[in-house]
Specification:
Pfam families: DUF5332 (PF17266). By secondary structure, the chain is an all-alpha fold. About 75% of the residues lie in helices and about 0% in strands.
Length: about 190
């Protein structure tokens, strides 16, 4: 009996580990796709070499386009749980269906943007809704944003850039920048 329980537990644990690593791998592919296809290399390079860390983060947020992600990184988005949730909610907003309201501020904002001008929902979302990703409204959104920032940060050693000079690693810098950004964009 004990052997069967141990075997069952091992199988369940193996499945959980596989799912976690599969999601991390899928979300890693999504992160690479977003940076490659949805971010302007020129804007990112300019931000890296001329702005403070908060300015860089703001420039990244300004480039974030869910429409780009959905059109240019759809397969990777579908494979990453956090992005797939956003895709499902956007689909519900545009079809008039009720969302799950896991991210109430973002989802309400998107609904308002869609009702005001469906053809320009992307620019409205960038201007009015993206900031809710960083005010503790949506764990799915912050997960994707963190992955993007950390990848760019690690690839460019942002804490050591002369215009940043941050004493810490990329994760520490993300937490610092997130607080500063959210404080400057309170609604």
């Amino acid at each position: 009996m004990f052997g069967m329980l141990k075997l069952a537990f091992s199988i369940i644990l193996w499945g959980v580990i596989r799912l976690s690593s599969a999601d991390a791998s899928s979300c890693g592919k999504l992160t690479r796709c977003i940076i490659k296809r949805c971010f302007s290399t020129e804007k990112t390079e300019t931000a890296l070499h001329t702005m403070s860390a908060v300015g860089m983060f703001s420039a990244m947020v300004d480039q974030f386009s869910f429409v780009c992600i959905v059109t240019k990184c759809r397969d990777a988005c579908n494979a990453c749980e956090q992005c797939n949730y956003a895709l499902d909610q956007l689909s519900k907003v545009t079809s008039g269906a009720k969302t799950k309201m896991v991210c109430p501020k973002i989802e309400t904002c998107l609904e308002q943007c869609f009702l005001e001008d469906a053809l320009h929902i992307n620019s409205c979302a960038r201007k009015r809704c993206n900031l809710h990703c960083f005010d503790d409204d949506c764990p799915y959104c912050i997960y994707v944003a963190k992955r993007i920032f950390l990848r760019i940060c690690r690839e460019n050693n942002i804490p050591k850039l002369p215009n940043v000079k941050f004493n810490g690693n990329c994760m520490d810098l993300f937490e610092h920048v997130l607080k500063e950004y959210a404080a400057g964009h309170r609604t």
